């Protein structure tokens, strides 16, 4: 079955960086568009970034220029490099394929 397992979250100071990873299995990763979302308790899950099977990336406005999504099709891995983090980036981050979600990884930006 499809599995998406996020890792790499943690506590970081404002201005710091983190790289999230998502290990994918159970589907043909190299042909799939992949997505990052995030959610703050009490708020709707928010789309963060998309990377297509052709490596074309798009981002929500609030992370443009700070976040970079990438993929490794050989190892079925999805990444989200997050630079210049701000407290408003604090959330649980999820990876997603066409209709499956991972369980998320917590990112906390605080001094």
Low-confidence stretches: none
- The radius of gyration over CA amounts to 13 Å
Order of helices and strands: EEEEEEEEEE
Main sheet specs:
6 strands, mixed
Walk me through the structure.
This protein has strands spanning 3-7, 10-12, 18-25, 34-39, 46-51, 57-59, 67-72, 77-82, 91-96, 105-109. β7 (67-72) and β8 (77-82) form a beta hairpin. With 111 residues, it is mainly beta. The chain starts with a strand and ends with a strand. The chain is built from no helices and 10 strands. The model has no long low-confidence stretch (mean pLDDT 97). The strands form 2 sheets. The protein has a 6-stranded mixed beta sheet with strand order 2-10-9-4-5-6, with no helix packed on it. A 4-stranded antiparallel beta sheet has the order 1-3-8-7, with no helix packed on it. 0% of the residues lie in helices and 49% in strands.
List keywords for this structure.
mainly beta; 10 strands; globular; six-stranded mixed sheet; about 110 residues
Quick summary:
It is built from no helices and ten strands. The chain has 111 residues and is mainly β.
Q: What topology does this entry show?
A:
Blueprint: E1 3-7, E2 10-12, E3 18-25, E4 34-39, E5 46-51, E6 57-59, E7 67-72, E8 77-82, E9 91-96, E10 105-109
Parallel strand pairs: 2-10
Antiparallel strand pairs: 1-3, 3-8, 4-5, 4-9, 5-6, 7-8, 9-10
């Amino acid at each position: 079955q499809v599995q998406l397992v996020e890792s790499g979250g943690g506590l970081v100071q404002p201005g710091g960086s983190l790289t999230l990873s998502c290990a994918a299995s159970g589907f043909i990763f190299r042909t799939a568009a992949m997505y990052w979302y995030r959610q703050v308790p009490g708020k709707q899950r928010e789309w963060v970034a998309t990377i297509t099977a052709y490596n074309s990336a798009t981002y929500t406005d609030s992370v443009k220029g700070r976040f970079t999504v990438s993929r490794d099709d050989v190892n079925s891995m999805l990444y989200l490099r997050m630079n210049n983090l701000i407290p408003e980036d604090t959330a649980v981050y999820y990876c997603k394929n066409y209709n499956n979600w991972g369980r998320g990884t917590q990112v906390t930006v605080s001094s």
